């Protein structure tokens, strides 16, 4: 709680202290963030405007792209500013807001990935009941529950962080405000709070990963009963999902299931899942998905045709 703190701001060490490397960081992060924003916006607009992408899979992909965009935005703009700043200062309130946003949209991404796996399981293993089980009403309820679950997770995290008293050093050896770096600065024994952090974030990441990998194992096992064409299409979709799951959950589990210690590699791992994965997701879902590529081409063709008639 802020009234118990003597610290009103934190100083971020960032990814590097070298001025030349800071400029390189700015350029690289800028390229990745613009690519993330454009790629996810393209998916969002395409799904929203396309008549052919109305299935539950693309409904959930819409929200995955939305969560990706917001997740990356909670980190990248601050990185831009700090990459060009001599002193990387972040206020207490801004730091707490960043923690909340990071975990809100990160949790939403986990829940949506789980829903996409459930959708593929029902579509492949129970095709006759698919329209009934994954109706639009059911999908809407599942997304609402995902937002509620994400909000509860993030609120729990921020309540725990707000209970930490900060009375000494305010130097964060990271490029953003997150749980582990803040625990190191707290003027109290953080053993119990760290257990609560791990049981919240760590359990969410690990259980989500186990559920996803189990569901895809069942799906891949059931594909033996399908014909070659159906197997090829299902494998293409599932492979894309599995790649996204591994890229996101691997670093996430590494960061949030450990004791409150920091390793030299932590920053690069965090960059990968906060900046890299949101950038790769649109590429994975468009380059490996013929329906999305065709819908994008059709959308642009229609747009160009309409402009030429004016």
Automatic annotation (TrEMBL):
Keyword check for Nuclease: no
Residue runs in coiled coils: none
Key words of the record: Cell membrane, G-protein coupled receptor, Membrane, Olfaction, Receptor, Sensory transduction, Transducer, Transmembrane, Transmembrane helix
CDD domains in UniProt: 7tmA_OR4A-like (cd15939)
Its membrane topology: Multi-pass membrane protein
Primary residence: membrane
Membrane-spanning residues: 24-45, 57-80, 100-118, 138-162, 191-213, 234-256, 268-287
Domain G-protein coupled receptors family 1 profile span(s) in chain numbering: 39-285
A molecular-function term among this protein's GO annotations: G protein-coupled receptor activity
Pfam family, one: 7tm_4
InterPro entries tied to this protein: GPCR_Rhodpsn, GPCR_Rhodpsn_7TM, Olfact_rcpt, Olfactory_Receptors
Localisation: Cell membrane; Membrane
Source organism, top-level taxon: Eukaryota
Keyword Ion transport included in the entry's annotation: no
GO cellular component, one term: plasma membrane
Family per similarity comment: Belongs to the G-protein coupled receptor 1 family.
Primary role: Putative odorant or sperm cell receptor.
Name the record gives this protein: Olfactory receptor
Organism name: Erinaceus europaeus (Western European hedgehog)
Underlying gene: LOC103116539
């Amino acid at each position: 709680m802020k009234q118990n703190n003597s610290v009103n701001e934190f100083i971020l060490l960032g990814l590097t202290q070298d001025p030349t490397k800071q400029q390189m960081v700015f350029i690289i992060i800028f390229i990745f963030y613009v690519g993330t924003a454009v790629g996810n916006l393209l998916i969002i607009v395409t799904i929203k405007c396309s008549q052919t992408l109305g299935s539950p899979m693309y409904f959930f992909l819409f929200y995955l792209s939305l969560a990706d965009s917001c997740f990356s935005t909670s980190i990248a703009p601050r990185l831009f500013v700090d990459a060009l700043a001599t002193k990387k200062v972040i206020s207490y309130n801004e730091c707490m807001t960043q923690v909340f946003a990071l975990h809100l949209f990160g949790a939403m991404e986990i829940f949506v990935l789980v829903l996409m796996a459930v959708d593929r399981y029902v579509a492949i293993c129970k095709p006759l009941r698919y329209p009934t089980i994954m109706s639009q009403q059911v999908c809407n309820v599942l997304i609402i529950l995902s937002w509620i679950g994400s909000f509860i997770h993030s609120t729990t995290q921020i309540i725990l962080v707000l209970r930490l008293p900060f009375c000494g050093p305010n130097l964060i050896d990271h490029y953003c405000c997150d749980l582990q770096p803040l625990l190191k600065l707290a003027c109290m024994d953080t053993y119990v709070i760290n257990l609560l952090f791990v049981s919240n974030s760590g359990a969410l990441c690990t259980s989500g990963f186990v559920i996803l990998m189990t569901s895809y194992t069942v799906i891949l096992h059931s594909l033996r009963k399908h014909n070659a064409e159906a197997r090829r299409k299902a494998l293409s979709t599932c492979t894309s999902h599995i790649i996204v799951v591994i890229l996101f959950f691997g670093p996430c589990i590494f960061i949030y299931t450990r004791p409150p210690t920091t390793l030299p590699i932590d920053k690069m791992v965090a960059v990968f899942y906060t900046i890299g994965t949101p950038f790769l997701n649109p590429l994975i879902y468009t380059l490996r998905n013929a329906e999305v590529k065709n819908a994008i081409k059709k959308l642009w063709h229609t747009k160009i045709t309409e402009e030429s008639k004016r």
